[in-house]
Amino acid sequence: MADAFSGGSLRIEGVSKYFGAFRAVNEVELEIRRGEFLTLLGPSGSGKTTLLMMIAGFLDITSGDIALDGTSIANVPAEKRNFGMVFQGYALFPHMTVRDNIGYALSVRKRAEGEIRARVDEMLELVQLQDFATRKPGQLSGGQQQRVALARALCFAPPVLLLDEPLGALDKKLRVEVQEQLKDIHRRVGTTFIYVTHDQEEALSMSDRIVIMRDGAIEQVGSPQELYERPATRFAASFLGKSNFVQQNGAVFALRPEKIDIHLGTGHPQARRRGTIASITYFGSMQRIIVETTQAEQIEVDIDVWRNRQALHEGETVELSWQDEAAVELNES
Amino acid sequence: MNAVARHIHPGWAIVAPLLVLVVALYLGPILNIMWLSVTDPEPGLGNYRKLYESDSLLRIVWTTLRICVITTIFSVSLGYSIAYAMVHCHLRQKNYMLTLLLVSFWISILVRTFSWLMLLGRNGLVNNTFETLGLISAPIAFMRNELGVLIGMVHYMIPYAVLPLLVSMQSLDSRVMDASRNLGASGSQTFWRIYLPLTLPGIVASTLLVFILSLGFYVTPAVLGGGKVLMVAEYISVQLLVTLKWGTAAMLAALMLAGVLAMLWIMSRFMKLSAVFGGSTR
Q1: CA distance A149 to chain B (A)
Q2: Could B179 and A92 be called an inter-chain contact, meaning their C-beta atoms sit closer than 8 Å?
Q3: Do residues A84 and A153 touch, judged by C-beta distance below 8 A?
Q4: ipTM of the complex
Q5: Best exposed site among A37, A262, B1, B190 by fewest CB in 10 Å?
Q6: In chain B, what are the domains?
Q7: CA A261, CA B195: separation in Å to the nearest integer?
Q8: Residues in chain B closer than 8 A to A84 (CB atoms)
Q9: Is the peptide bond before B41 cis (omega within 30 degrees of 0)?
Q10: Where would I find the ABC transmembrane type-1 domain in this sequence (chain B) (predicted)?
Q11: A104 and B183: CB-CB below 8 Å?
């Protein structure tokens, strides 16, 4: 086979980016491992896309260095970096067929006609678009276009694949489906994926590791479990999943809504808060209850509707309890 | 309400007066000219037969076509470079360039034509300067020949060539070019394989516009050609005003109209005209 996949490792060393006086990315240090699925997660304006564009080579870095497998690529132009990229909105070539779109990278490298054909067939199979090879991008649905973009970016077996909010244009149901496919393709090709999104569900369900970004800097790095179970800051706790913040012995703790137990009435031995139910919202599998405590906090409690069949009503007095390890102490500075 | 009235959309009531006006004031005279071309001076195809029989008439048509093709080629290729520069420079510079372009667009064709005479005529600025500097012994014949006509026409046509190209380049998604680079294409590969094909509708639109406008050019060939370069429009005017052969004039006018319509038809077979004139490409 002409192009065997093998993931590359990236080192981002103290990278900053200024646009005039505005600092878009601030001293980012990050080690991206060979073959991992890494997600850059943050709200818009957090610098995640700017960082991705610097990795792709579309933006110069103001200071710092980026190295692929130990070699600096900071001065390598975008067209020589050999990184695949799936663009926001896909940026397919509208005047070319699906086949020509996917084969473009090999064709500009002047590979032999037959070799390109074989490779494109392989890619079409990978993204299951064998029947659409002769269509133009305008004749495809959003999900199909997204798969063409993915196949085009993977066709030349890049060591690193960059994905810039690739699911942003899809509706919610399709997005879940495509997440599965992406994850599966990542497993099969073994290329290093760097994925930019502002959608925490996408980040949680797909990534090996997540980098939470805020104001151009890294807030916290870790596996989805680490970040969800042990958020280090108030921002990390509220951006990834929902969180209550409670004061205990002068420190601030993050407390996930589903880790709180709710008890009707008073006098529960483990009760930590007492309050009244301010509102109940029903979501089918769970109920979200907002409790106004006697300490003037608003605490959200998610309860499993099936396993918790107490009849709760707005205005009733309840007590809340949680286990010690459910509350995570935050670094408040 | 009768059956016919029920099938007519009430919106037509708004459009109808305009439609009548267009038919009366536009289609009417055109039909009249066509009619003239086959009835004056006597009924029959005698006027059209002159195209074969008269060498001078044929030469005029040939000269017109040659000048229009050359003008179109130069205007569109220069216009493409200008539009490209405008789209890819800073906004400030772009606004300067657009202003300059529109200023030359708005200046009367007469003024622009005579300016060229002042610049490039026998005693014009360029020839005088070169002679004073001793670079040439006799003035270069820029004007009063086909070269003069071409210089004047290309200059006049460039804004017309630039504007459709500008629209087409501005509507391109720059991420598509980024994608091409990201996939390893060099600058020239990206240009030839992505940029040029995607701006093709703009090229076709500006080619059609320039060519069609060039066909009817009158002032520039008359002034800069110095009577030596006779194009169809000038010949028509001579037939109308001097020799009073309205039939010949009408025949040539009908011929030009047919030529333009034929070009539009041929183009429409290769691409959707709605895309060329700014409609959706889907």
Answers
A1: 10
A2: yes
A3: yes
A4: 0.83
A5: B1
A6: 1-39 (no CATH), 47-276 (1.10.3720.10)
A7: 61
A8: 182
A9: yes
A10: 61-267
A11: yes
